[in-house]
């Protein structure tokens, strides 16, 4: 059955909020999962461990969905909503998430290598151990997001906005900081060849400023006694 025919089948059986995918996954099991979800009254999609490669799911509402360990390599997800979605350990290498809603999404240990996340809303998201090397985060809002051991070597943070973020990222001289603004808790680990060093406080502020950003590093948070 062709992709167009399958899309037609989904539409005829009843869509969710009149949305339909522009292209379906190449994997028949992932397509079946989408079909059942679109035709049902269930709210949360269970895409755990599914292979969505080849799909264009732009504009879809995947709030509270499970994509744990899913393969989303190269998938178009422009303007999609992943509010509170679980994307832990998902592979989003080269995916296009331009303008997506990732508010409070779980992206722990996910792979975002070379992904496009320009203009995404990542308020309160969790990116623990995430590989975002070479990813583009232009104008992304990271307000309150937790970036711990997040690999951002070669990433583009042009005009991104931070606000009291845990910002314990890995960076290097190819990490673009131009126009980056806000407040963070460090430290940042900066790599140069085989060596690395941790930068915090005014030293981190100066390092970001040298790259065209303006970020204030907050003192370490301490729980009141």
UniProtKB/TrEMBL annotation:
Gene3D superfamilies: E3 ubiquitin-protein ligase SopA (2.160.20.80). It comes from the Bacteria. Signal peptide: none annotated. Pfam families: Pentapeptide. PANTHER family: THYLAKOID LUMENAL 15 KDA PROTEIN 1, CHLOROPLASTIC. This is Pentapeptide repeat-containing protein. It comes from Streptomyces sirii.
């Amino acid at each position: 059955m062709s992709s167009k025919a399958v899309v037609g089948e989904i539409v005829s059986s009843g869509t969710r909020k009149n949305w339909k995918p522009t292209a379906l996954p190449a994997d028949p099991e992932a397509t079946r999962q989408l079909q059942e979800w679109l035709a049902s009254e269930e709210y949360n999609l269970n895409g755990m461990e599914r292979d969505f490669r080849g799909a264009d799911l732009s504009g879809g509402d995947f709030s509270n969905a499970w994509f744990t360990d899913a393969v989303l390599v190269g998938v178009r997800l422009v303007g999609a909503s992943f509010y509170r979605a679980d994307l832990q350990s998902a592979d989003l290498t080269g995916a296009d998430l331009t303008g997506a809603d990732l508010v409070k999404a779980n992206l722990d240990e996910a792979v975002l290598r070379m992904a496009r996340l320009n203009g995404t809303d990542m308020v309160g998201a969790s990116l623990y151990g995430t590989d975002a090397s070479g990813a583009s985060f232009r104008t992304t809002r990271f307000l309150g997001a937790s970036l711990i051991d997040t690999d951002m070597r070669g990433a583009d943070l042009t005009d991104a906005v931070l606000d009291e973020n845990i910002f314990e990222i890995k960076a290097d001289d190819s990490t673009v900081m131009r126009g980056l603004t806000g407040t963070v808790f460090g430290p940042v680990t900066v790599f140069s060849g085989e060596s690395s060093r941790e930068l915090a406080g005014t030293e981190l502020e100066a390092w970001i400023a040298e790259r065209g950003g303006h970020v204030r590093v907050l003192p370490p948070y301490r729980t009141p006694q």
